[in-house]
């Protein structure tokens, strides 16, 4: 066996040991044993929550199965973070939201505007009188002086 063959075998052995160590610590990633389970269960829980929020409840046994599995993963320390991966949209009127102060936000996609109380209508009033003409336009020829 040549030097390069020995180096390749040693590198493969080292990689296998590293994969085993990472998998046992819960840091192995999606390919490791149990590493991607939490992400799959969180996705399933999100699907179930979305279905319920849109009036299509999922099976109660699915919710129980997914929640129990996530609790088991959390107890084993396999869930490292509960941080959200998406940011909420900016509040209306905030910089970057596209809304202008004093104007209502645009309707949501799909053309369905949210229902709510209507703002009070401005009181009807007569328009203000026009300003007086400039002095050079007076008809008495005085020029305003």
Could you tell me the strand content as a percent range? under 5%
| SSE succession | HHH
Number of strands: 0
Global outline: elongated
| Sheet having the most strands | none
Proportion of residues in helical segments: 25-40%
Number of helices: 3
Q: Rg, please?
A: 34 Å
Give a nutshell description of this structure:
This protein is mainly α and 145 residues long. The chain is 39% helix and 0% strand. The N and C termini lie far apart (115 Å).
Question: Could you name the key traits of this structure?
Answer:
single chain; 145 residues; mainly alpha
Textual characterization of the structure:
With 145 residues, this protein is mostly helical. It is built from three helices and no strands. Helix 2 (37-53) runs antiparallel to helix 3. The longest helix is centred in the first third of the chain and has 23 residues, at 3-25. Mean pLDDT is 75; it is low at 29-33.
Layout of secondary structure:
Blueprint: H1 3-25, H2 37-53, H3 60-75
